[in-house]
Structures are given as structure tokens and as C-alpha cells.
Write a structure and sequence with these properties.
One of its GO terms (molecular function) is ATP binding. Strands 5, 6, 7, 8, 9, 10 and 11 form a seven-stranded mixed beta sheet that branches. This protein has a five-stranded parallel beta sheet with strand order 13-12-14-15-16, sandwiched between helices. The chain folds into six domains: about 70 residues; about 100 residues; about 130 residues, Signal transduction histidine kinase, dimerisation/phosphotransfer (DHp) domain (Helix Hairpins); about 160 residues, Histidine kinase-like ATPase, C-terminal domain (Heat Shock Protein 90), CATH 3.30.565.10; about 120 residues, Response regulator (Rossmann fold); about 110 residues, Up-down Bundle (Four Helix Bundle (Hemerythrin (Met), subunit A)), CATH 1.20.120. It is of the alpha/beta class and about 750 residues long. The structure holds adenosine-5'-diphosphate (ADP).
């Protein structure tokens, strides 16, 4: 910043005025002196003229008369004239001098001829008069005059300068100072104080500048205020955006958790369904097996074989699906045992030999000599992987060769075991290069054609990959289309521990006497099989009369009653048992039914049943009943906000434990969504409200929380219509519904 020297402008102005005045004064003085000089000269001229006109005649007369005395008087008279320094008269008779005989200064000398006209005769020259005027005196005067005028001028000019300075300061400089100070304040950020000049008179240029400056200040102030408003708005927006991002992130996290939970639920569902399907399928296969012993004609025998084969195929698929689902769910953990790899290979190859023979394929096996006799590891997993790879090799090779080769990669020490590479090589159809990576993904097959020709689920290799990775190894394939494949895996096996594995012991309750009343033979057999598997003694009855006979002859610990019996229904039969005098009057009776609508269930309970077991029967549920964990009757009552039958159906399909798990997930989800919803509603973030409401409504619906679900759907509709005020009005109802649902969940989870 350039800082002005204080008073710089004023000094320059003064200097300029003084210089100008000096020049002017000098000029004016010169002119004045010149005029004075001319006047002096004129005075001298007029004096000379006076001498010529007034004195010359008398001097000529006195000279004619030779009157010296008179001449002296007259000459003295001339010397008295001002500035006349000397008078000198020369004639033939006289040489008279009056005044200073040798004047010092510059002289102006005037000479007059003295002529006389006698009355008769010609004009005669008598002499000459010389008058010397002292110019020094004149110059002296002129000098004094010039000096005086100069002095006066100087005094005047100084006064003028002082006056002008004062005036300039008053009118300009001090205001400029105030304005400069004002500008500095503005630069320092003090925009509030207006510019105030100490002025009384009307407006001038200074006021114009001052107004312009103050206008500038106001403009800056307005600009700053506008920027501040903009900044605040921006900050608000940014905060809002940040919050929105946070909400979205939380929402995404929830969605991710939900997706993971859904994936897990899907695996569980898959596992449950395959399990559920497997049980009756086993029943069907068992029955088919029994029928094989019966006397059938050739046609029926073939049909039975086809039935058995199809059943077995279905069972294999189900087993794979179930196995994979369980793997995904993480239920299956490798159980390390001591085993012999050679023996394992032997067993697997022996099992697959018939298939290979069917395909005209030769099986061979080579194991590196250095490989230990025994190892410690997940034998089951290894068996599964080897079986899958070998089964595939045999399946995709017709009239060829399949070999298993086990090579030692490295000896990791006696303590650490061995690292092995197992290769299952075939010279079958091979796999296209682009499919070699993909076939390890679940449900993936090399081509549509292969799938149609060879069948399969596309799960075998996915299972192998999963198992090998669980064992800490890696798996891959080298293959050439049409020439064969080599499936390999590498893993490390621990040395055998030498400790014999104890067979797993199943914890089971005491053996019970159980009567099963069921008219469908297959179901009867299945229930019987399940119960006997747990060591219980089972009596079977097809209809009510048979059941009553059993009851008369025997005391049971538990009676399982199919509700839909021919003739007397299960409900009626229960009533009869309860009202009889027999020993089974107080025996626990459970309905075995697929009809779990609340009204019907209430009917079963009123008839004296202790609970309901949903069909198809699950061993898990059965065990719970036997252990005294009865499905809660209260949960079967219906109300407005809850779809209890739906929940009950879930229970019977998925099992109480899984439903409890799902209810806990729903509780957590409601708690999370409640906070997120409140936040989004407070922020009028309709998009978020709609999303959250939609998602939570879906979960609530699936578990029968229909009251909350319908409130959430209404909220979603309002949010999609951007009706913020209606959303706010709804918040109280929503809160109540959420709380009510949480209370219900708490009760359910505690039971
Ligand atoms: P699946 O055999 O039930 O179809 P897999 O996961 O075991 O399922 O195999 C996936 C696919 O990989 C098979 O459908 C087949 O196309 C291909 N494949 C597996 N093993 C071989 C093999 N030894 N030779 C050729 N193709 C194979």
C-alpha cells in the first residue's frame, strides 16, 4: 500500500502558488520599475525644458551684462533643482561651476548654448551651460521603490499562501484524511460505520466523492450480506447433503444386511425345502424297495424300476442342493480325523467302478510312494471332492480312461505334514477354455448340450471348490475340448495324530411309547421311521376305532392324531379319549395337520389337544414337542394388527427356532428403520421415507405384522406424493404402530 506523505498535496500546492506568485511579482515589479524609470526620465526632461524655457534667457542676459554675481545666484538656483548635481557655465569671460564639482554616480549631462540677440546686430553666442543630473539618486529611488513593492508583494503572498493553505485544509485536505481513514476501515473489514464529514456548507465535489465512497461501502456491505446468506444457504445445503448421504449410507448398509440376511434365509429355505422333500422321497423309495419283493408282472416290474431310478435321481439332486445350501449357510465344518488316503481312494474307486464299467471306462490310480500311510484331516470333505471329480470324469468319458494321481508337492516336516496335488485325469469330452473358470460357479454347466445329454445340477464342482477351500487348498482344471480334462486340487494334510476317533454320541431323551393315528400309509411310515430313529417305541393306527383299541390296551406317553381321519375325525377322537375313563385320559395329544388356520386350531385346543404339529412333520418340531416345547397356543389367536395364521404357517414350515430367528431380525430391522424413518421424516426427505417404509413394510408383511405393514404402505404412498404435512401428521400413528409391533415381538421372542 502506498502511504501519502502527510501534507504532500498542500505543500505542492503552496510551492506552486509561491513559485507562480514570485514570477508574477518579479514581472510586475519589473514593469513597475520600468514605468517609474520612464517617469523619472520624463521628470528630468521636463526640468531641462523648464531650465531651457525659464532660466536660459535670464542667464544670457546676465552673461551679456557680465554680472557674475547674478550669474552665481542664478546657477545656484539651478543646482537646487532636484537631482541636479552640478551646473557649469563656460563663456569667454566666465567659467563658473555650482554644485558638486566631481559627482560620483552616473550622470546625465545636458548642454545648452547661450545666445544673445542684442537690440542691434546679429545673434551672438555667449557661452555654454552644462547641467549634470545625478542618475545615481534616481536609481536609488527606483531601487527603494522596487524593494518596497517586492517586500509588500512577498508579505502579501505569504499571507495569501497561509490563507489558501488554511482554506485548502479546511475544504479539502481534512476531508481527504477522513475519507482515507474511512477507506482504511473498509479495507480492515469495518463496513458498518458510515462515512461522516464534518461539513456545514452545501454540497461540492468532496461530497460527491464522499457519497460515492459511502455508496461503495453500502454496496460492499450488501455484497457481503448476500455472500453470507449464500454461504449459510450453501452450508445448510451441504449439511443437508451430508445428512442425506449419511442416511443413504445407513440405508444402503441396512439394505446390504438385509440382502445378506435374505441370502442366508434363502440358503436356509433351500436346505429346509430339500430336507422336507427328502424325507417323503425316502419314504417313496423305501416303499418302492418294499414293492420290489412283491409279486409283480414284468410290465409293473419295469415301471417300478423306472420309478425307483427316477426317485434315486431326484434324491441325488436333492442331496446336492441340500449339501450346497448347508455349505453356504456355514453349518458344515470340516471334522478332522485320522485316515488313510490310499484306503479312501480305494473305497471311492470301488464305489464308482460299476459306473465306469457301464461306460466302458478304465479306472486307474497312482499314489506317490513318499506319501504317508495316514493323515489327519477332513476325510469326509476329501471323500466328497474325490467322488465328485471321479464321478464327473466317468460321466463325461465314454470308452476311455480315468486316472487319479496323487503327487507329493513338498514335505512340510514331520510335524506339519505333507502338501499334495491330486489330479483326476480323463480323456473324455473336455471343456471349452472360456468355460473352464465358470464351471466352478454354482448351477453352471459347460454347455446347454452337455446339460441335456448328461443331466446334473451344476453344483458338484461348486461344492468341490467350497470344500477344498475350507480345507485350505485350491482347485482348478486343465482341459482341451474333445481331448479330455485334468481336474486338480492342492492341499496340505497334517500327520496322523494317532488318537482313535470316538463315534459321535447323539443326545436323546428317554424312549417314549407313542401312538400315531394316521390314515395315509406313507405318512404313517415316515412318522414311525422318524420316531424310531430317536429310539422311541411306536404304535400305529389307521383310524379312530383302532386307535381307541390301542388306548384301551396301553398307556402312551404321547398320541399324535391326524385331524382328517376317515369316519370319526381326529378332533372328535381326541374328545373321546379325554372324556373316557381310560388311562390315556391325561396323555399329551398333538394334532398332526396341515390345516393351521386360527379358527381350526382353536377348535383343536378346545377339544383337549395340547398343541399342533404342522404337516409335513419335521423331526426338529417333533423333538421340541417331546422335550416339552409346545407351540404356543396364544399365538394362534388372531387380531387386527397380526396375521397369526401366517406366522403359525411359517412356524410349521420353517420350525419354531428359525421363525424366532426371523422375528429377532424383524425386531432389529424395526428398531433401525424407526430411527432412520424419524430422521428422514424430520428432514422432509420423501424419497428416503418412501424407500424405508417400502422396505420395512415388506419385512412386516412377510412375518404377519399386517397392521404396521399397512401403515407403512400408506406412509409410502404419501411420501411418493411428496405430501410432507400428511407425513408429519402420520408420525404419531406410525410411532404407536411401531411400538405395538415391538411389544408384540418382545412377547413372541420371550416365549
Ligand atoms: P454337474 O455335473 O451336476 O452338471 P458339476 O458342477 O459337477 O455339475 O459340473 C459342472 C459342469 O462342468 C458339467 O456340467 C460339465 O459341463 C463340466 N464338467 C465337469 N467335469 C467334467 C469333465 N470331467 N469333463 C468334461 N466336462 C466336465
Amino acid at each position: 500500500m502506498i502511504r501519502a506523505r502527510p501534507g504532500g498535496l498542500l505543500r505542492r500546492l503552496l510551492l506552486f502558488i509561491l513559485l507562480f506568485s514570485l514570477c508574477f511579482t518579479v514581472l510586475a515589479s519589473s514593469v513597475q520599475l520600468y514605468i517609474e524609470y520612464r517617469r523619472e526620465m520624463r521628470d528630468i526632461d521636463s526640468r531641462m525644458e523648464l531650465i531651457r524655457a525659464g532660466y536660459l534667457a535670464s542667464l544670457e542676459r546676465s552673461l551679456w551684462d557680465l554680472n557674475q554675481e547674478q550669474l552665481n545666484v542664478q546657477l545656484r538656483g539651478l543646482v537646487d533643482f532636484s537631482d541636479v548635481a552640478r551646473v557649469h557655465l563656460t563663456s569667454a569671460d566666465f567659467d563658473l561651476v555650482q554644485g558638486n564639482p566631481a559627482p560620483a554616480g552616473p550622470l546625465r549631462i545636458e548642454r545648452f548654448a547661450l545666445d544673445y540677440q542684442p537690440p542691434s546686430g546679429p545673434l551672438r553666442n555667449l557661452g555654454e551651460l552644462e547641467v549634470s543630473t545625478d542618475l545615481g539618486a534616481v536609481y536609488q529611488r527606483l531601487y527603494a521603490t522596487g524593494l518596497t513593492s517586492l517586500l509588500w508583494m512577498a508579505v502579501f503572498l505569504c499571507g495569501l499562501a497561509v490563507a489558501l493553505s488554511g482554506l485548502f485544509y479546511r475544504l479539502v485536505t481534512r476531508h481527504l484524511k477522513v475519507m482515507a481513514e474511512f477507506a482504511r476501515r473498509i479495507a480492515a473489514g469495518e463496513w458498518q460505520e458510515p462515512l461522516h464529514l464534518d461539513k456545514r456548507r452545501g454540497s461540492d465535489e468532496i461530497d460527491t466523492v464522499a457519497h460515492a465512497l459511502d455508496d461503495m461501502r453500502r454496496a460492499i456491505l450488501r455484497d457481503i450480506e448476500r455472500r453470507e446468506t449464500d454461504r449459510l444457504a450453501l452450508q445448510d445445503n451441504r449439511d443437508e447433503l451430508l445428512k442425506m448421504v449419511e442416511r443413504r449410507t445407513a440405508s444402503l448398509m441396512r439394505a446390504k444386511d438385509e440382502a445378506e440376511a435374505a441370502n442366508l434365509a434363502k440358503s436356509r429355505f433351500l436346505a429346509t425345502m430339500s430336507h422336507e422333500l427328502r424325507t417323503p422321497l425316502n419314504g417313496i423309495l423305501g416303499m418302492a424297495e418294499l414293492l420290489r419283493g412283491a409279486r409283480l408282472d414284468a410290465q409293473d416290474g419295469k415301471r417300478l424300476d423306472a420309478l425307483h431310478k427316477a426317485g434315486e435321481g431326484l434324491l441325488t439332486i436333492l442331496n446336492e442342493v441340500l449339501y450346497f445350501a448347508k455349505l453356504e449357510e456355514g453349518v458344515s465344518h470340516p471334522e478332522p480325523v485320522d485316515f488313510s488316503l490310499r484306503q479312501l481312494l480305494d473305497e471311492v474307486l470301488t464305489l464308482l467302478e460299476p459306473r465306469a464299467l457301464n461306460n466302458d471306462t478304465i479306472l486307474s490310480c497312482r499314489v506317490d510312494q513318499r506319501i504317508a500311510e495316514h493323515h489327519h484331516g477332513a476325510e469326509q470333505f476329501l471323500r466328497q471332492v474325490l467322488s465328485n471329480l471321479l464321478a464327473n470324469a466317468i460321466k463325461f468319458t465314454e470308452g476311455g480312461e480315468v486316472s487319479v494321481e496323487v503327487a507329493l508337492l513338498s514335505e512340510t516336516g514331520e510335524q506339519l505334514g505333507q502338501r499334495l496335488r491330486v489330479c483326476v485325469t480323463d480323456d473324455g469330452i473336455g471343456i471349452a477354455p472360456q468355460m473352464q473358470e465358470k464351471i466352478f460357479e454354482r448351477f453352471t454347466q459347460a454347455s446347454e448340450e452337455v446339460a441335456q445329454r448328461f443331466g446334473g445340477t451344476g453344483l458338484g464342482l461348486a461344492i468341490c471348490k467350497h470344500l477344498v477351500e475350507q480345507m485350505g487348498g485350491c482347485i482348478g482344471v486343465d482341459s482341451e475340448e474333445g481331448r479330455g480334462s485334468c481336474f486338480w486340487f492342492e492341499l496340505s494334510l497334517q500327520p496322523a495324530s494317532g488318537v482313535a476317533e470316538a463315534p459321535p454320541v447323539r443326545a436323546a431323551g428317554p424312549a417314549l411309547n407313542i401312538l400315531v393315528v394316521e390314515d395315509v400309509a406313507l405318512n404313517r411310515e415316515v412318522v414311525k421311521g422318524l420316531l424310531q430313529r430317536d429310539g422311541h417305541r411306536v404304535w400305529l393306527a389307521e383310524e379312530a376305532d383302532q386307535a381307541l383299541q390301542h388306548c384301551a390296551a396301553q398307556v402312551f406317553d404321547l398320541i399324535l392324531l391326524d385331524v382328517h381321519l376317515p369316519g370319526i375325525s381326529g378332533v372328535e377322537l381326541c374328545r373321546q379319549i379325554r372324556h373316557s375313563d381310560g388311562a390315556n385320559r391325561h396323555t399329551r395329544i398333538f394334532a398332526l395337520t396341515a390345516s393351521v388356520q386360527p379358527a381350526l386350531v382353536r377348535g383343536y385346543l378346545e377339544a383337549g389337544m395340547d398343541g399342533v404339529l404342522a404337516k409335513p412333520l419335521k423331526l426338529e418340531n417333533l423333538r421340541q414337542v417331546l422335550e416339552g416345547h409346545v407351540p404356543v397356543a396364544e399365538s394362534l389367536l388372531s387380531d387386527e394388527a397380526m396375521d397369526w395364521p401366517l406366522l403359525q404357517t411359517h412356524r410349521s414350515l420353517l420350525g419354531a427356532q428359525k421363525v424366532q430367528g426371523l422375528l429377532a431380525v424383524l425386531r432389529d430391522s424395526i428398531l433401525q428403520h424407526r430411527d432412520a424413518l424419524n430422521e428422514a421424516m424430520a428432514a422432509d426427505d420423501c424419497t428416503e421415507v418412501a424407500q424405508l417404509a417400502h422396505r420395512l413394510a415388506g419385512s412386516c408383511d412377510s412375518l404377519g405384522f399386517r397392521g404396521l405393514a399397512s401403515t407403512l404402505r400408506a406412509l409410502e404412498t404419501l411420501a411418493l406424493a411428496n405430501d410432507e404435512s400428511a407425513i408429519r401428521r402420520m408420525s404419531l400413528t406410525l410411532d404407536e404402530q411401531l411400538q405395538h409391533s415391538l411389544d408384540t415381538l418382545k412377547g413372541l421372542l420371550q416365549s
